[in-house]
Amino acid sequence: MISEFKTYKSGLKVITLSAAFFLGSATTCFAAGYNLNLRDADLQALVTTISAATGKNFVLDKQVRGQKVTIITGSEIDEDKLYATFLSVLQMHGLSAIDSDGIIKIIPANKGKYQSVPVIKDPTGIPEIDRKTKKKEPDALYTKVIKASHVPVANMVPILRPMISPTGHLQGYPPSNSIVVTDTAANISKVTDLVRNMDRPDEDEMEVVTLRFASAVELVKTIQGLQGAATQKGAVAKYKVSPDVRTNSVLVSGSKSGRSQVKDIIRRLDRPKIKTEEESTRVVYLRYAKAEDLAKVLQSTTANAVSAKASAEGGAGTQKAKVTISADASTNTLVITAEPEVHRNILEVVKRLDIRRAQVMVEAVIAEVSMDLSKELGMQIGAYDATGGSPLVSTSFSGSSFSLANIVSGALPTGTGMLLGIGGGSEGNTQWGAVMNALASDAATNILSTPTIVTMDNVEANMVVGQNVPFVTGTTTNDTNTNPFQTIERQDIGITLKVTPQINSGRSIMLKLEQEVSSLAASSASASDLITNKRSFSTQVMVEDGQMLVIGGLIEDTFRDTEQKVPILGDLPFIGKAFRNTVTEKSKQNLMVFIHPMIMRDVLTADSFTMQKYNDLRGAQMQSRVNQRGSGSRMAAEFPNDPNVLLTENPSIIRQEQLQRHIQVNQQQANTQTHRYDTNAPARPSRPLTVQQRQQIAKQREAQQKHQNEMKRRQARQAEQARREEIQRRRNQVLQRDRELKLLHQQKLNGQNGNRGTY
């Protein structure tokens, strides 16, 4: 330690003497140069010497004071090399010299990038400190902005960052595609050269390769498979390919060598297909669709597709694939013979068409209210010659249920209403009689029919509730009037409902409806020539799921007042009533038809509606039992709570079948549909599930559970809404009936008050 101290002191003395000598004679100083031989010298002393030699002003950071440096020069150096050597010494010791307005700050290098560092503007990379003598400072700390024109800076920054010093800084600025670097001038020059070499214009171009025989989509899949295998081994992709289905072409982009390589692959693969025995026959079992209908659609689709492909490929049309599709109605299957590629396309179409079609339950409400009122008052008199057998004088009005002979003979016929008469009186050979007829009738009818029918989407359904009545269409007899016979045609009389629903996107339904309500006229029920009352609708409407809509109605009001009398005599006061007959008839008929469609998309919804209807039927049956219990008549057997019990004697079997059916439906919804129709596909080996697959399965189960909960809530809301609508409907019926009864009662009172004294 003592020898080293002495060496240091000796060296320090040499430096001090040299500096004093230089200061004393500057010219001699520059001519002679500098020769440094310092070992573990204090940095502050070195800075003092450099400041005296160069005339620069230095400021030392407190963190750099006390550092030791070593400089040994084998020969004399000039002032420029002296300062450059000083900067190199600072860099080696982790220090930086920053020039700020003529004052050079010596600070730790890791703080240099946070200081006001001079910015390089010279495109050569290293700044000039003296433009007259072209003196350089390669180890000084600077900042430079390097702009790239072709290559994104995000791609170059990872490559350039290892090239700078640990205390330097390099950052990309994508908005202007520039790189900002803070480091020594030498490192900045090196980074600038690298950027210039990498920032070259892209030589990639694009070409279109038209295919003659191969399919563009299949060929691109093959090339991309080769490209992916090469990329996994570390190779860089030199080209990109994409198909153009419309022109059956391949778009190739990349470098010249890459394009040449891929075009050679395309040329080798774009050749006529070799005849092989790849055509196979597969049997596809359908779940929902009808095999005959689906076969017609597939035959038309494949024929058009093959013809279009042959026309587009030109010469390839001679190698058109043979496709046969047939249906087996007994097993509801499709038998398909085609190549594997065509098989895949056909199975994809089958998967999209063989779906569960929604069903529609249509409820029709036919409300008919009719009222008939009639009054009749009249008198008939007559005189009859007992000897001659001919009437002398009489009054007779149409519609009477008795004849003059009854009156004269004294036999009062049986009729409706009140008959008051006298007869059998005689005056000589003349017999006479008189009868008075008074009748008032009041009839009210309230008919409510609610036919319900269920059908699939776009399928017509027909429902007839009534009688099949014979109508005589002709009568034939021979010349002797023996063995006559009649020709009869039977027709349905009652309620007929035809409906064809079409479910549109969303919840709207387009309904094609034909509704007919017919009945036999009461006056012709027992006659040979029957008369029917017929009311029919034929319309097409748009309605929402669950909406009640009126599709038609009829309001008919008829009033008839008929008076039959004997002229002059019937107009006489008081006694004129004996010579006239008055009939007053009033009828009123109201008819309205409503529809209420509801969509059933799954089994759960169908079961909900089924149970709702069954509960309505069971409720009506229970109400009937309550009414019969007080009358003492024989009561019908009670319906069970579960309608399925009606089909079997063991209810547990039904519950097990329902549970199994729901399990199958849930499994079918959860399973993937990839190989559902490919019956000849080989079984895949079981593999352990990855974490991503397990998460996906868990998400699917969670979504399925949410869907089931939502369906249950929806069914509960629909059931509650249906229950409230039914209660409201029954209330409206009761209120309507009460209003009708009050109206009829008021009309009776008005009729009695208006006709008081008539009878």
Automatic annotation (TrEMBL):
Residues 622-631, 665-674, 689-698 have a biased composition (Polar residues). The keyword Transport applies. Gene3D superfamilies: 3.30.1370.120. Residues 622-646, 665-739 are annotated as: Disordered. One of its GO terms (cellular component) is type II protein secretion system complex. Belongs to the bacterial secretin family. GSP D subfamily. This is Type II secretion system protein GspD.
